[in-house]
Specification:
Largest sheet: 8 strands, mixed
Number of strands: 19
Strand content: 15-25%
Shape: elongated
Oligomer: single chain
CATH superfamily of the largest domain: Bira Bifunctional Protein, Domain 2
Helix content: 25-40%
CATH class of the largest domain: Alpha Beta
Number of domains: 2
CATH architecture of the largest domain: 2-Layer Sandwich
Low-confidence stretches: none
Structural class: alpha+beta
CATH topology of the largest domain: BirA Bifunctional Protein, domain 2
Radius of gyration: 27 Å
Bound molecules: 4-amino-1,4-dioxobutan-2-aminium adenosine-5'-monophosphate, magnesium ion
């Protein structure tokens, strides 16, 4: 008897073979002399239909009492299914139960629950069709991320989760502290809970440490969790999110955008090819134009305009924005979406932002007022990537850091990279969850991360 997963059974259809499946019951329907069981094992969206005859020894005691959520092991023979809806089914010879799920209290009963309700049962929601599909797509895309960079000669660098620097300089960091008792070293005793002898935080970006490795290995990337303690309760923000950050030596801003564009096209092609069944669920229930939206991203070149051009377009438009548009202020989500949805109807890179609204590490342009920054805006999402060419000139970087009142002693190592064999280099950060929102058309970011962390809410 071979234990097979439903994905393999449905794709290979090993008919007339005696096999075993293991999974969770979705539904039971009773006819006169038998029951239909729909079993799902998480390997794919589809269920396997099981035909359980009333002749089974435990039919009355077990089978006839099975409910949604019970876990089962079923062995039997695969056969063509005479009825509509599925090509094959399993004729059960033996059904064993692993665990019951009391229908009085098991929360997943109705066919469709609201996403808001499902968030309150984050430990059970991956058993639903849509959250299960998202989990498989997320896993598939994680694999594709590594595949892409591996194929392009990048080395993966595990940048630290706990850090003593503030990459973005925005001060939106979670503090890392440890219980004071039991700490041996003097600094800890003096400063109560500083385990590392000085204040430490959860990282807001692996970029600065990735730069260290780019200056040694040439092309690197990091793919890990990042944390932001910003009080943003929107459908696009979570306090813990995953991000992909490549960093390339000998690379300018245009080449940085080239990489970002081919990377996104690769990921979207991957999902169109490898996750058809799961993707179709979102076409059916969330956005019927999803396929064409995804195909369009793959087929067309992205547009590129400067921040200054963007401001001109916005000011000329007759739109009534909530926030006014002035050269020198950051673009708001409404401006970004207007540009890439109404004006360009394409993914859009906006480049060369005023230096005063961007972090210290971005390379100052010859005009001395803008920096070699880029944001990628996607229709329906807004900003999905932020990146830049990095300031590689020691004097200019140091002056910028002083201007922004950074403590130079904390960044000596970063300045060292400019003292010893400095090179032009660039990189960017792709928010993995926002990208998953684009791919699945899910409206709220809380659905595309397994356990969302937002202000006032963190389950488990
Ligand atoms: O523009 P950001 O802040 O860029 C950086 O942190 C750079 N150090 C990246 C780099 O150059 N290596 O963030 C980049 C992306 C955003 O465009 C967005 O997709 C995502 O990270 N992001 C968030 N996603 C979910 N929730 C949040 N709170 C996010 N903040 C940023
Ligand atoms: Mg940004």
């Amino acid at each position: 008897m071979q234990y097979l997963r439903i994905n393999d059974i449905l794709s290979k259809e090993p008919l007339q073979q005696a096999i075993e499946v293991r999974g969770w019951l979705r539904t039971r329907r009773d006819a006169k002399d038998f029951s239909f069981l729909e079993l799902n094992d998480g390997s794919c969206l589809a269920n396997l239909q099981i035909l359980a005859s009333a002749d089974l020894a435990n039919y009355k005691d077990i089978v006839a009492n099975l409910h949604t959520g019970c876990s089962l092991r079923v062995s039997g023979q695969l056969q063509d299914s005479p009825a509509k809806g599925q090509r094959i089914e399993l004729l059960a010879q033996k059904i064993e139960i692993y665990g019951w799920a009391d229908p009085e209290i098991y929360p997943l009963q109705k066919k469709r629950h609201s996403y808001e309700f499902l968030r309150t049962i984050a430990h059970l929601r991956p058993r639903t069709n849509s959250l299960g599909a998202i989990a498989r797509i997320r896993s598939s895309l994680s694999f594709a991320v590594h595949q892409f960079f591996h194929d392009h000669g990048f080395a993966l660098v595990h940048t630290p989760i706990i850090t003593t620097i503030d990459c973005e300089g925005a001060g939106e960091m979670f503090k890392v502290v440890a219980p004071a008792e039991g700490m041996q070293h003097k600094a800890a005793l003096k400063r109560d809970a500083d385990f590392f002898g000085k204040p430490a935080n959860l990282t807001v970006s692996g970029q600065l440490q990735a730069e260290v490795y780019a200056m040694a290995l040439g092309k690197v990337y990091t793919f890990g969790p990042t944390f932001r303690a910003e009080n943003s309760n929107t459908s696009r923000h979570v306090a813990e999110f995953w991000r992909i950050e490549p960093e390339m030596a000998f690379c300018n801003l245009a080449e940085d955008m080239d990489l970002a564009e081919s990377f996104l096209k690769y990921l979207v092609s991957h999902v169109l090819e490898n996750n058809k069944e799961d993707l179709h669920l979102f076409v059916k229930f969330i956005d019927k134009n999803l396929y064409s939206k995804l195909a369009k991203l793959v087929e067309n070149p992205f547009y590129r305009i400067s921040y200054t051009e963007a401001v001109e377009i916005l000011q000329k438009s007759k739109k009534n924005f909530d926030y006014p548009v002035d050269w020198g202020t950051d673009l708001q989500a409404e401006h970004e979406r207007y540009l890439c949805e109404d004006i360009f109807d394409r993914p859009l890179f906006v480049t060369d932002y005023p230096k005063d609204i961007k972090p210290f590490y971005m390379r100052v342009n010859d005009d001395n007022t803008t920096v070699a920054a880029m944001d990628l805006l996607l229709p329906g999402i807004g900003e999905i990537i932020g990146g830049s060419q990095r300031e590689e000139r020691y004097d200019i970087l140091e002056a910028r850091m002083l201007e922004m009142k950074l403590n130079l002693d904390e960044y000596r190592w970063y300045l060292d990279l400019r003292s010893f064999g400095t090179v032009p280099h660039s990189g960017f950060g792709l928010g993995f969850e926002r990208f998953l929102q684009f791919v699945t058309a899910m409206k709220n970011i809380r659905e595309v991360i397994p356990f969302p962390r937002t202000p006032g809410s963190a389950l488990y």
